[in-house]
Design a protein that fits this description.
The chain is α/β, with parallel strands linked by helices and 378 residues long.
Length: 378
């Protein structure tokens, strides 16, 4: 005879296992559903993040091309190229022509920027990107379709690239070597080879000199600024043994060209105090009554030689960087200390340029004018 009392615990255990299995069967669809919802939500968030990246990249690229070329067609094409290069949900983002708008972005008293569509001298570009039925890519397909009651999701993202207001401090070398030609070794002769008979320091700088090459390049630079849709302010500081500010921050760029011409008519000898020039240029930006709150501060520091007197350029550059000033450096002639000026530019989160000839120097200043900062204002 079977002892039922002895079987009772086993039966109870079996019943418990059966109940757990039933519970698991009941909960499994819910767990799968919750997992599917989580996967879809994560995919939607990832796609939106990709949309932000693609839209911002397109706005930056298009905005930079708008400033550098002045062509709305080129800017639109560039924005569309960058959008396609950045996938959203596995597919490059298509921007139609109407998704790219041009206009004027102005800073309000509260520090915000307002965009208004305007095809006359635009300084900003607005990208309105979307993945929906109106976009060539269509809506974003979900990884787990129908779980949320739909197989797709739509999203829209906007970004505006605006050329920032820029206060520029131009710092130029007027040491004695600048009276020599770019292809001469300064100091190999007591006076420049192209100097006329009887020439002395304090006379007009000889033709073909580095200084006149620089003056011509600065004239091109100011012309580029004048043609820019931005409203840059420019100061001029110069240095040999000592540094001075020749022109305070101004929108009258002709005064900078005129100040350089004064040295052309009477050029003095002197050493090369690059650090003093950087410090003087920084002061011209930071202490001028004309400086603008919120404007980017940029120094362009040019030399044709080696720092040999005064404040260490790296110390001066670090102080400028700590004050929020970006530094571009330009070396002219193969006698210049390219390594040292590269270090200065690195400290100033900027870029170093080198020119061996007058034509290269002019192109450098064109490139700098086209590289002035742009800002994503939305």
């Amino acid at each position: 005879m079977v002892n039922l009392a002895k079987l009772t615990p086993a039966i109870r255990a079996s019943r418990r296992r059966g109940a757990v299995i039933v519970l698991m069967v009941l909960l499994l669809p819910i767990a799968v559903l919750m997992a599917a919802i989580a996967i879809n939500l994560a995919y939607i968030e990832l796609s939106r993040t990709e949309m932000v990246i693609a839209t911002d990249a397109a706005a930056r690229a298009g905005g930079r091309d708008l400033i550098t070329t002045g062509s709305m067609t080129a800017a639109r094409n560039r924005a569309q190229q960058l959008a396609l290069a950045n996938p959203v949900a596995g597919t490059g983002l298509n921007l139609s022509n109407s998704d790219v708008q041009f206009g004027t972005s102005t800073r309000t008293a509260g520090g915000r920027y307002n965009f208004a569509a305007n095809l006359l001298n635009p300084n900003a570009l607005r990208i309105t990107a979307h993945r929906d039925g109106l976009n060539a890519n269509g809506p974003i397909p979900l990884l787990m379709p129908s779980v949320l009651g739909t197989g797709t999701v739509t999203t829209t993202q906007e970004a505006i690239s605006t050329q920032m207001e820029v206060d520029i401090g131009l710092v130029v070398d007027r040491s004695g070597s600048m009276a020599f030609a770019a292809n001469e070794v300064a100091g190999a002769l007591p006076v420049p080879a192209l100097a006329p008979p009887g020439w002395n320091w304090g006379d007009p700088v000889p033709s073909g000199s580095r200084w006149l090459d620089l003056a011509a390049s600065v004239s091109v630079f100011t012309s580029e600024l004048s043609a820019s849709p931005g409203a840059e302010l420019l100061s001029l500081s110069s240095y040999n043994n000592a540094a001075i500010t020749d022109t305070s921050l101004t929108s009258a760029y002709g005064s900078v060209v005129a100040a350089m011409s004064l040295y052309s008519f009477s050029f003095a000898n002197g050493s090369t105090n690059v650090g003093g020039g950087i410090a003087e240029g920084s002061a011209a930006l930071l202490s001028s009554p004309a400086q603008r709150a919120g404007a980017a501060k940029v120094l362009i520091v040019m030399t044709d030689g080696m720092h040999n007197t005064g404040l260490d350029p790296l110390i001066a550059a670090q102080a400028a960087a700590d004050a929020g000033i970006m530094i571009f450096t330009v070396t002219f002639s193969d006698e210049a200390n390219q390594v040292g000026m590269q270090q200065v530019a690195t400290l100033g989160i900027g870029r170093h340029y080198h020119a061996s000839t007058a034509a290269e120097l002019t192109q450098v200043f064109r490139d700098i004018a086209s590289s002035l900062p742009t800002l994503l204002t939305k």
